[in-house]
Amino acid sequence: MRFRTLTILWPSFLMAGVLDGIVFSLVDPADSQLVRFATDVSPQGIYTIGFLVFWSVISCASGMTALLVVEQDDDVAH
Description:
Number of strands: 0
Strand content: under 5%
Radius of gyration: 18 Å
Helix content: over 70%
Mean pLDDT: 83
């Protein structure tokens, strides 16, 4: 169980970092109209919230994929 959890969380962590870098190199949180409600949050806070959102979405998608994978027994192939 621990191995499966790590195989879901670690790649999703890496891809969230990549996605965070791509999105925030194109979008400046200070200029964005999407974060008008978060005027008290610093740009680093917006980067952190974005990273955590990306990580959770990618983790959920990876977890659903792991649930859908059916491991084949060697006996079934015969």
